């Protein structure tokens, strides 16, 4: 059943089709973002990374389930920790640990983790006119200064413990998909011109959110302006019910009584560094919503407004 959600220059760029000022959202105070992202200093990151690496030794897992990259992939994302570009939404700190599932779950140092996802109303950068389904304002009505070709996309390079961290927002949704974040793990390449070049893709997957948390978030501004039928995990065409090995995130609220303050999400990605899986044409993905990408992707000459950062 579907849940009924009501009122409540980059060196290269390509699209693989498988088929802009900061505006504070109502109820999302700046303090919420600061609280969710408070532990971003090098010292705390190193401590968290060590703890994460230690935990994987007793939780060695099987390979993650690879799936399609979907219709909204764009090459040339920036290497940076904060990918929001001023997009409004519930803050999400995402910590991912990359391990070699074929070698005792040892950390994969230097792996490049790439993520991309839609904004609070279901729009992806690069495809801001694609209809997310249901009833939603046009992406242009958000009133932010985000670059329409780069927001909510980015890379991070894993440290010695295989850990990367992103600062983003809780994704919205689009018909007929459940709430999700796309992810790729690359190895063998290097940072160049602010992005990541070369190497190969070892894993292509998607990260998922528990239904109860997602549906609570979608009653808040600005998410509540997108109404319609929200697809729960059990009915999603990609999520296969496998829990963590299928991409289901572990989430922790920054403030238990106030979801608008944000969440911290974590997951260990068990990959095979010798394998290659681009996600192009693999797994499920379904038919893109009406207005989904057709024709040429954004021009290579599009210049990102956000600078790359480590």
Brief characterization of the structure:
The protein is mainly beta and 310 residues long. The chain has helices at 30-36, 42-56, 211-217, and strands at 2-5, 91-100, 106-107, 112-116, 153-157, 163-169, 180-192, 195-208, 228-231, 250-253, 263-271.
Task: Explain how this protein is built.
With 310 residues, the protein is mainly beta. It has helices spanning 30-36, 42-56, 211-217, and strands at residues 2-5, 91-100, 106-107, 112-116, 153-157, 163-169, 180-192, 195-208, 228-231, 250-253, 263-271. The strands form three sheets. Strands 2, 3, 6, 10 and 11 form a five-stranded mixed sheet that branches. The protein has a four-stranded antiparallel sheet with strand order 5-4-7-8, with no helix packed on it. A hairpin with a 2-residue loop joins β7 and β8 (195-208).
Features:
single chain; 310 residues; mainly beta; 5-stranded mixed sheet; 4-stranded antiparallel sheet; 3 helices; 25% strand; globular; disordered N terminus; disordered C terminus
Rg over CA atoms, rounded to whole Å, is 18 Å
The average pLDDT value, as a whole number, equals 79
Structural class: mainly beta
User: How are helices and strands ordered from N to C?
Assistant: EHHEEEEEEEHEEE
Distance between the termini: 42 Å
Number of strands: 11
Proportion in helices? under 10%
Q: Low-confidence runs (pLDDT<50, min 5 residues)?
A: 1-58, 283-287, 290-310
């Amino acid at each position: 059943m579907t849940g009924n959600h009501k009122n409540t220059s980059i060196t290269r760029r390509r699209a693989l089709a498988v088929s802009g000022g900061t505006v504070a959202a109502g109820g999302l105070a700046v303090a919420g973002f600061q609280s969710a992202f408070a532990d971003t200093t090098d010292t705390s990151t190193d401590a968290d990374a060590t703890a994460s690496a230690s935990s994987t030794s007793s939780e060695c897992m099987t390979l993650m389930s690879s799936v399609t990259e979907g219709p909204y992939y764009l090459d040339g994302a920036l290497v940076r920790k904060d990918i929001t570009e001023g997009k409004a939404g519930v803050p999400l700190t995402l910590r991912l640990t990359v391990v070699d599932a074929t070698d005792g779950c040892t950390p994969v140092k230097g792996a490049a983790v790439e993520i991309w996802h839609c904004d609070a109303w279901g729009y992806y950068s690069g495809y801001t006119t694609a209809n997310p389904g249901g009833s939603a304002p046009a992406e242009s009505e958000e009133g932010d200064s985000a670059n329409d070709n780069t927001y909510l996309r980015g890379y991070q390079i894993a440290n010695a413990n295989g850990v990367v961290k992103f600062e983003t927002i809780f994704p919205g949704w689009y018909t007929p998909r459940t709430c999700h974040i796309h992810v790729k793990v690359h190895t063998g390449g290097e940072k160049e011109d602010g992005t990541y070049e070369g190497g190969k893709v070892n894993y292509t997957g998607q990260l998922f959110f528990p239904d109860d948390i997602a549906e609570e978030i979608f009653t808040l501004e600005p998410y509540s302006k997108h109404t319609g039928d929200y697809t729960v995990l059990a009915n999603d065409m990609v999520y296969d019910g496998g829990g963590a090995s299928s991409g289901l995130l572990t989430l922790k609220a920054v403030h238990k009584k106030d979801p608008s303050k944000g969440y911290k999400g974590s997951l260990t990605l068990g990959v095979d560094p010798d394998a290659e899986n681009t996600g192009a044409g693999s797994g499920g993905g379904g038919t893109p919503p009406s207005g989904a990408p057709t024709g040429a992707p954004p021009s290579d000459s599009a210049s990102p407004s956000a600078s790359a950062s480590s």
